[in-house]
Amino acid sequence: MTISGYNSWPFKEAQKLRNRFPEPPHIPVRFETGFGPSGMPHIGTFAEIARTTWVRHAFEFLTQYPTQLIAFSDDMDGLRKVPLNLPQQEMLTQNLGRPLCYIPDPFGECESYSAFMNKKLNEFLDRYQFDYTFQSSHEAYTRGDFNDGLAAILQKVEEIKAIILPTMSREKRVNWSPFFPICEKCARIYSTRVTTYYPENNTIEYICDREEGLVKSCGHKGRISIFNGKVKVGWKIDWALRWYSYDIGYEMYGKDLIESAKLSGKIVRIMGKQPPMGLFYELFLDEEGRKISKSIGKGLTIDAWMSYAPLDSLLFYIFQNPKQAKRLFWGVVPKSVDDYLTDLSHYDRLDPGKQPDSTIWHLFNKGAMVPDYGSSINFSLINNLISAVGADDIDLILEYLKRYDSSMEDFIDIIEDLVKKAMSYYRDFILPNKKYRTPNNAEKRILKQLRDELAGYEGNDEDELQSIPFSVARMFNETPKNLFKMFYEVLFGQERGPRFGTFVQLVGKEKALNLLDTASGS
Ligand SMILES: [Zn+2]
């Protein structure tokens, strides 16, 4: 066993997985992520695939083994309730209890409800250039991928019931079976119950007579094969069935699925194989620390993040300790962008042996495609600049930035993109919260003094510039803290702002004097 020496979490995960494969396996080591196509892909889908990809890449780097990421869509799942954000509510209500792959597409674009959602998932993953193999559950069942596993489940049906039943309420235990036959007459899946098992020839007998909520039944009785898509298994069993049939080596899941993962792990062991390695991650929270609910759709979307900040800064944010709950709201954007840019600009200076522990290495395809960034300009600085000069003229802002950091032309693509996004962020989130304060006469005198001291200073050294407000504070027997607060409230309409020295360097002495003139009323 080789200890990799890398400490970033994807390497820790990869090392665990590596211990399972002392010899190179004869098939690719498979990673899986699951998608429920009752709704659109969202930021949770994105985060799970990104995190799995990071572990996969670390594993490839450590072992050189071939790997595969299966993005599995559970499109045989039945529709339990009608999502409120979809059209054709009445048609969908009529189809409650049917597998998603047998329900018409409410948008009328694809052959089924799930075909539409699967298309959205593929477009979504392609857009962010993930490397994955899509697998539809319906196709897998129909093609017979699961037949061996289904036979194993039927052989062990009593053992499986003994594991699952104690986790259910008493009423639900009565009719429970791992198998959900799809009624041959009405195509519903949640209206049927198994009446007899025939493991000797892999068939079951069922009746379609369960009615729950709005799910109807038709009374049909039949005996069918468990093979080739005529029957689905309940989802915890389904999870185990996928692991079993595709020899999944690694899968991660949200904290809300810990108990389900344990049960699925027990089931796959009963079937005769090992559950995959994996880790559970904490969920995203909203600004107040509440779980972001998929159905309410509250919280940030990826598109929204991308209109205010680079996508890579979102990946950077998602990368940080997956076991720590993350708040996802507008307030986290500026710090994420700045942390990302700091790491990006330091990456080149890292010892190559240490680079794989940098978030940047993971973000950019095992360090192969890291963009060059050597400027000290970041998102906060741009926002501060916009606070001082307004968000109307991008050329003007770029002009100021060039004066502040002459090397910025070398990174103009990154910086121009940042400026455009910062302008949107400023207009939508900063400007509406600004409260400019009119200074009283005593404060005007302080600002006037600050102006005069600055006017009398000849150099352009940031530390020397920064010392000016401190000496003015001393002259007026005021604390620097109070002086800065007043300065920011009057000039920026906010309680905090850039360092005075940085601010003067950024806008130039002339502009700074103008702003102080206006503020002090002189
Ligand atoms: Zn029926």
Which small molecules are bound?
zinc ion
Category from helices, strands and their pairing: alpha/beta
Terminal-residue CA separation? 74 Å
Q: Write down the overall mean pLDDT.
A: 93
Largest sheet: 4 strands, parallel
How does the overall form come out from the CA principal axes? Answer: elongated
Widest beta sheet: strand line-up: 3-2-1-9
Number of helices: 22
- Report the sheet-strand fraction: 5-15%
Q: Radius of gyration from the CA trace? A: 30 Å
Q: How much helical structure, as a percent, in the residues?
A: 40-55%
The residue ranges in which pLDDT falls below 50 over 5 or more consecutive positions are none
Number of strands: 13
Task: Produce the secondary structure layout.
Blueprint lengths: L8 H10 L10 E7 L7 H21 L3 E7 L15 H6 L18 H15 L5 E4 H7 L3 H9 L1 H8 L5 H4 L5 E3 L10 E7 L4 E6 L12 E5 L5 E3 L1 H12 L1 E4 L1 E2 L3 H14 L8 E2 L2 E2 L16 H7 L2 H9 L6 E2 L5 H15 L11 H5 L15 H11 L4 H11 L7 H19 L10 H16 L5 H14 L4 H12 L8 H8 L1 H12 L2
Parallel strand pairs: 1-2, 1-9, 2-3, 10-11, 12-13
Antiparallel strand pairs: 4-8, 5-6, 6-7
Helix pairs in contact: 1-2, 6-9, 7-10, 9-10, 12-13, 15-17, 18-19, 18-22, 19-21, 21-22
Bound molecules: zinc ion (ZN).
Describe this structure in words.
The structure is a single chain. The chain is elongated. Strands 3-2-1-9 form a four-stranded parallel beta sheet. It has 22 helices and 13 strands. The chain starts with 8 loop residues before the first helix and ends with a helix. The model has no long low-confidence stretch (mean pLDDT 93). With 522 residues, the protein is of the alpha/beta class. Helices cover 47% and strands 10% of the residues. Bound molecules: zinc ion. Zinc ion is lined by residues 183, 185-186, 188, 191, 208, 217-218, 220.
